[in-house]
Specification:
The protein is of the alpha/beta class. Helices cover 34% and strands 19% of the residues. The protein has a four-stranded antiparallel β-sheet, with no helix packed on it. A three-stranded parallel β-sheet has the order 1-2-3.
């Protein structure tokens, strides 16, 4: 069986730990390192793998290879190529009819830079948050429910307000 190829983004403490695990794994192989720091050249050379300065540079070496496909009722979106396969009408959905294929327009930017800029605009009262606290709480509830269901083999009711309180007790503070 071929080994699963792993590329590690970032050669800091956590990245180095991931590289070590991949190199020692009987089922995985370190295939590349992505990090702009000049010191990473030595690490990549020692590991015997290519070094890429950015994720875009790494992906550019595989221009037609996707790692995620998000499927829905009317088609799918492949990432990172952003290839969109859709049906124009509900009656066209069929295993025997071709998709309409296009590429979704997007600008490749650093998502963390966008996130911190948006956060600053929220703090200054210029915009509303894209994701509200309740959305984050519901996400945590679902994540905890998945973990609990996997551990117990039982269905977990995520509609209960207390479904995560055993793990994350809510502490309310009154502010003046």
């Amino acid at each position: 069986m071929p080994k699963t190829r792993i590329a590690v983004a970032g050669a800091g403490i956590i990245g180095l730990a991931h590289m070590d695990v991949a190199q020692k794994s009987p089922t995985c192989a370190l295939s590349a390192i992505v990090d702009p720091a000049p010191a990473t050249e030595v690490i990549a050379a020692k590991a015997g793998v290519p070094l890429y300065k950015s994720l875009d540079e790494h992906y550019a070496t595989y221009p037609d290879e996707d790692c995620y496909v998000i499927a829905g009722t009317f088609g799918s979106l492949s990432i990172p190529t952003m290839r969109l396969k859709t049906y124009a009408k509900a009656e066209d959905r069929s295993w025997w009819k071709p998709f309409e294929v296009s590429v979704a327009e997007m600008t490749r930017d650093d998502p963390l830079a966008h996130q911190i800029e948006h956060f600053g605009r929220v703090v200054r009262g210029e915009v509303e948050p894209i994701v509200r606290t309740r959305d984050g709480l519901q996400n945590l509830r679902i994540t905890e429910a998945i973990a609990e269901a996997a551990r117990t083999g039982k269905i977990v009711d995520t509609t209960r307000p207390d479904c995560i309180s055993r793990h994350y007790p809510v502490q309310r503070k009154e502010y003046p």
